[in-house]
Amino acid sequence: MRILFYNIRYGTGCGWSYHLPFPFAGFFRPARGGTERIGALLDDLDVDVACLCEVDGGSYRQGGRNQARSLAPRSWNHAFSPKYGTSPLSRLPLLSTQGNAVLSRLPIVASRENLFSRGVKRSLLEVEFPGFTVLLAHLSLGRSARKTQLEELALRCRSLDRPLLVGGDFNLLRGSQELKPLLEATGLVDADATARPTFPSRRPTRRLDCLLTTPDVRVRTFDLPDVTLSDHLPLLCDVDIASGRDRR
């Protein structure tokens, strides 16, 4: 199975033009062209499951259409969750439609939104597939809130007795050492043993995005495709997932 984790920045692009005629001006522009380019990338990479942070749930940038629905081919399934939970930001125009999504050519058994107790971005999207579960998060920029979120993520992982793929934009501003308590508490394994940087996409210097797996998920390949459709690089991984009989 091929799985992708990618902060797509709502399809609004990156580079100097993003900040013209004023800083972060690109955030407010219509992004349907960017959405089409990201869709073409998913086709080119031939992914089975795409886990996307910073997805537009249907603002004017997408002409009122959920970006996850636009990106998912007709035969695919998708799950979406707003990322601000019950925060006051969830009631503001434009921000109210921002979230995370999982698109899949595989059948989705169930999905649910878990909410972290702290942070501005609180959504932990949980998507159950036959034989495994994906947990997708976009963690807080604040160090203290992010620490709490990682602790709560560990608790959720420990409650799920099945193969897990856990990832997203973790905003690891203090480096990969922030993951150590999570890995020790859960037995999760870092899919990228070399901890390569993922941000900014044009000249990566920081590792903000990661993918973690339970030991019963065998990582065959892990790559960071060199694309600049967002300010983050995508994480592309080919995995084999043990069946229940194999796990025993």
Structural commentary:
GO terms for molecular function: endonuclease activity. Pfam families: Exo_endo_phos (PF03372). Keywords: Endonuclease, Hydrolase, Nuclease. Residues 7-232 form the Endonuclease/exonuclease/phosphatase domain. With 248 residues, this protein is α+β, with helices and mostly antiparallel strands. It has one domain (2-247): Deoxyribonuclease I, Chain A (4-Layer Sandwich), CATH 3.60.10. Helix content is 19%, strand content 30%. It contains five helices and twelve strands. The protein has helices at residues 32-45, 67-71, 143-158, 180-186, 244-247; strands spanning 2-7, 49-56, 77-82, 98-104, 110-115, 123-129, 132-138, 164-169, 189-190, 209-213, 217-223, 235-241. The longest helix has 16 residues, at 143-158. It is globular.
